[in-house]
Amino acid sequence: MAAVTSRLSGRQTCAPENEDLSDEQMQELLEQAAARLRTQATSAQITRQEEQVFRFPRLDAGALPKSYVRSDGHVAHLDSARLLTEKDRKLSSQARKVEDPITVKKAVLEKKKATTGSDWFDLPRTDLTPGLKRDLQLLKMRNVLDPHRHYKKESGKMKAPEFSQVGTILQGPTEYFSARIQNRDRKKTFIEEVLSGEAETGRFKKKYGEIQNTKTSGKKAFYKALKAKRAGGIKKR
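Above: the chain's sequence. Below: its structure in token form.
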């Protein structure tokens, strides 16, 4: 027995060497070959349908910029003027400063802590100068300046605010005659205003005299003043 290969089906059929294939065998081989052809045709049709379904649209790149590389035959030429912009060319020709990121972050945090932030109009940190310290102390003792005004009593020592700013109140044009302060009465600090008011009224000096009279009542100073008053009365007689 020898193996016989069919060109149509590719299958091998065992048959005697000297014997021809029977009609039944030939019919079987032809049917197998026809089935194989139908399968191949169906697969090819499915592949063409898939290509039509999944075909990507053609992209339009538009007007592309001119390339900075041009070819002259087998030689390529480079346009170096188009590799960098004029700004980058200037930066590359000078020394550049490289900052430490930790130092930069620290400086940003210090700058942020120097003010109260945008929610509080960026008030700066208080610079406690001697003049500002005196003004704050005077504000704390403002209840003794005017006996007709009463302020909320404060307890504890004077503590300067962490954030503050000193400004000047500008009077409007409608207050020129009603609430205008003359230039000779304008002072730079609160201390100068208080001293100027004391020079006009003499209230503190008078108050000091009343306190001293109360303290010296019934003591040597009071007795000496009484003797001097009596002596003066005798001489007049």
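The radius of gyration is 55 Å.
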